[in-house]
Amino acid sequence: MGPVLFKAACPQCRARFELSAGALRLAIGATHKTTFYSFTCPECDTAVRKPAGERIVELLTGGGVRTLRLHSRV
Hints:
This protein is mostly beta strands. It is 12% helix and 38% strand. It has one helix at residues 54-62, and strands spanning 5-9, 16-20, 25-28, 36-40, 47-51, 66-69. The strands form two sheets. The chain has a four-stranded mixed sheet, covered by helices on one side. A two-stranded antiparallel ribbon has the order 1-2.
């Protein structure tokens, strides 16, 4: 099995592409409003940040995307 690729789109230039896990970052906050993933568009070099619901968090973490937890568990 090859590397995991994720489909993504840029809201700035509207390009659609696939990104490896290393090209994405996932931040998990205390609420759904502070949980997001980010990447840089390979077409226009725009920094993109999009909300990440539970399913997206599952897919990204399962695919090896680096994760930053913005809150601590008590």
